[in-house]
Write a structure and sequence with these properties.
mainly alpha; 634 residues; globular; two-stranded antiparallel ribbon
Length: 634
């Protein structure tokens, strides 16, 4: 059962990718859907056995390699943390697969697309079930490669290929930091096995360095400030790809990595402070960027970036279970938002610009209902999924003593208001405002059943998941996580968060109404951004806080310029002169022609050269004072 849950997506991917020509679009979709359905059902059974019954399982697939003191085996570990992630990944991926059958039905390359989706899910399952950081890297790099293939799926679009390359290159930077962290952990802890990390972690100087390296690895995958620049451009891929990447797979890998190595983070105060700072700044930055976006999918993408900042803050405040809880609830309503937006885009001739939409609540009342539900869950409307998890993070920040708690709570409350503002702005612009599209973009909504069914499943999750999992995952005194998530003995903020004042617990609800007012009043930038002060802020946000300018002009351009200089002076200069090519050219172009000139064919020239050689030899013997034994010569 455990091995089948992980391998089923790979089998479906192989059949669809290699046999898609014979299976056809419908056959490939059914094969991959069957593989994901089997994996999802088995994941729920694993959750029941491992998490609810408290029976962790380890599957040994044999040794992989051994070098010096590094011994890596293929071990798949299934504990509470793995079970929760497997349920989340397979459920959302199953909904995305089913949705793709309707959304991509007119695409001639549907078998290849479904194969990529299943392969993506399979590598994510490898990542969450790995017990060694080296085997975790297999899944980590696998989802990176699959994200490149999926973002650039429509490779005939130049913008899609550039977005895929950008995502790959940015993640290469962060993956280098993760690789350095793995090597440092092996050097200081003596192993890359996560169980050994849990047993040997201690407060030491090297814990800070390892945690900072792991944070560098998480920055790229989870799109945190500085390495978030690929996230919005990834919207060039098909909408199901956006839903899968942003809801339950790629961007959640960094949060999972931090939670899985929680025993090490608890030994590093500096590392946790960096997590809080990075998460809070990322949330604020992404929320401000979402305010001025006119692309429907990019607004939701920046919302994902902002919510990932919430999860990082929860990890930095030593409540890793809360971060995973928010990850699970966020996966439901964020996938609902993306797939609901895909319905609107699909029914309006693939128009994503909010300025060319409007009036969709009459043509697509079901999509309006689903997007409204997802938005209310995102902003934390009472008793929906986001209300239980997001408000719990705000309460945790309130209960944390010191400047860290004040700083994180102030920024996250501001982010909550901005989140509500741009979320309701999207609803108003796409559904309530008068239609502003071209005549050719007005189509008759023809949404197939396979696109509505996943939305119903995700809507059910957005309503019930928060309430059903609240007591188990973050309840006071709950031992749900066991040893899969470790906390320092003196950590009490997660207990104090249950005892804050009532008015403090209801304070986040006020941000919903503030956001509604701001979203409706400032749905379009004109005329208020015509004023000089607001115009500067608006243009700064349109430039994405100048991060792209800094990366391109201040970092990438000097590096490329240095590379061109070293290429001309070293590669094409010193190495060519002293290398095999330079030596061969010296022999063929200088030595051989010079020797050839000596071959005149005249006997007198050869006799002269012989006499000169003999005289030169006699002179050298005389100058060196060599002793000549004449008796031996006679």
């Amino acid at each position: 059962m455990f091995l089948c849950a992980v391998m089923a997506p790979f089998l479906g991917s192989a059949l669809a990718g290699l046999g898609g020509r014979w299976l056809g679009a419908r056959g490939s979709g059914c094969v991959t859907l069957l593989g994901l359905g089997m994996s999802a059902v088995l994941s729920f059974l694993i959750y029941h056995e491992v998490a609810l019954q408290g029976s962790p399982v380890t599957v040994d697939l044999g040794p992989w390699f051994q070098a010096s003191t590094v011994s890596v085996c293929w071990l798949l570990g299934f504990d509470t943390l793995t079970a929760c992630l497997m349920v989340t990944v397979t459920f959302v991926s199953f909904c995305v697969h089913l949705y793709s059958l309707g959304y991509m039905q007119a695409d001639p390359h549907l078998p290849r697309f479904m194969s990529y989706l299943s392969l993506f899910t399979g590598f994510m399952l490898i990542l969450v079930s790995a017990t060694d950081l080296v085997t975790l890297l297999v899944g980590w790099e696998g989802i990176g490669v699959c994200s490149y293939l999926l973002i650039g799926f429509w490779f005939h679009r130049l913008s899609a290929t550039k977005a895929a390359q950008k995502a790959m290159l940015v993640n290469r930077v962060s993956d280098t930091g993760l690789l350095v962290g793995v090597m440092m952990a092996w050097w200081y802890l003596g192993s890359t096995d996560l169980a050994v990390w849990t047993a040997t972690s201690t407060v030491a100087y090297y814990a800070d360095w390892i945690c900072l390296a792991l944070l560098a690895g998480a920055l790229g995958k989870s799109a945190q400030v500085g390495l978030h620049v690929w996230l919005a451009d990834a919207m060039e891929g098909p909408t199901p790809v956006s839903a899968l990447i942003h809801a339950a797979t790629l961007v959640t890998a960094g949060v999972y990595l931090v939670a899985r190595t929680s025993s090490l983070w608890e030994c590093s105060t500096l590392g946790r402070q960096c997590l809080v700072w990075v998460g809070a700044v990322t949330s604020l930055m992404a929320a401000t960027l979402g305010l001025i976006q006119n692309d429907l999918k990019r607004v939701i993408a920046y919302s994902t970036c902002s919510q990932l900042g919430y999860m990082m803050v929860a990890c930095g405040l030593s409540h890793y279970g809360l971060a995973i809880y928010h990850l699970m609830t966020h996966a439901c309503f964020k996938a609902l938002l993306f797939l609901g937006a895909g319905v609107v885009i699909h029914a309006s001739s693939d128009t994503q610009d909010l300025r060319r939409q409007g009036g969709a609540h009459q043509a697509l009342p079901e999509a309006w209902s689903f997007l409204l539900l997802g938005t209310l869950s995102l902003v934390g409307w009472p008793f929906l999924a986001g209300y239980y998890s997001k408000d719990a993070i705000l309460e945790l920040a309130w209960a944390t003593a010191g400047a860290t708690g004040v700083y994180s709570h102030a920024l996250l409350m501001t982010v909550a208001a901005l989140t509500s503002a741009y979320s309701f702005r999207v609803l108003y612009a796409a559904f309530v405002a008068p239609a502003n599209c071209r005549r050719t973009e007005i189509t008759t909504p023809d949404v197939p059943l396979v696109m509505w069914l996943p939305l119903c499943l995700l809507a059910t999750g957005s309503i019930t998941v928060g309430y059903l999992l609240s007591d188990a995952l973050i309840g006071w005194g709950s031992d749900f996580w066991g040893t899969s998530v470790m906390l320092a003995p003196a950590t009490f903020s997660h207990i104090a968060s249950h005892m804050i004042p009532v008015w403090g617990a209801w304070l986040p609800l006020s941000t919903v109404f503030i956001g509604i007012l701001l979203g409706i009043c400032f749905v379009w930038p004109m005329p208020w951004c015509a004023e000089a002060f607001w115009k500067v802020i608006y243009l700064f946000l349109q430039a994405r806080w100048q991060f792209d300018f800094v990366w391109n002009q201040q970092i990438a351009y000097p590096v490329l310029k240095l590379g061109a200089h070293t290429w001309s002076t070293v590669d094409k200069g010193v190495l060519e002169v002293l290398g095999p090519q330079g030596l061969s050219q010296a022999v063929t172009q200088w030595a051989v022609p010079g020797v050839r000139q000596w071959q005149t064919g005249v006997v007198h020239d050869y006799a002269l050269m012989l006499k000169m050689s003999v005289l030169a030899g006699i002179i050298l013997l005389a100058l060196s004072g060599a002793h000549v034994d004449y008796r031996a010569m006679t």
